[in-house]
Amino acid sequence: MQVFERLTALAVTIGALLVGTGTAIAGMGQPSPWQLGLQQSATPVMDFIITFHDYLLVVITLIALFVLALLVVVMVRFNARANPTPSRTTHHTVLEVAWTLIPVVILVAIAVPSFRLLFYQLNLPAADLTVKATGKQWYWTYSYPDNGKFEFDSLLACDRERRNCEPPRLLAVNNDMVVPVNKVIRVQTIGNEVIHAFAVPSFGIKIDAIPGRLNETWFRATREGIYYGQCSELCGKDHAYMPIAVRVVSEQAFAAWVEEAKRKYAREDDGRTNLAAAEQAPDR
Ligand SMILES: [Cu+2]
Question: Fewest beta carbons less than 10 Å away: which of 26, 104, 219, 261?
Answer without folding.
Answer: 104
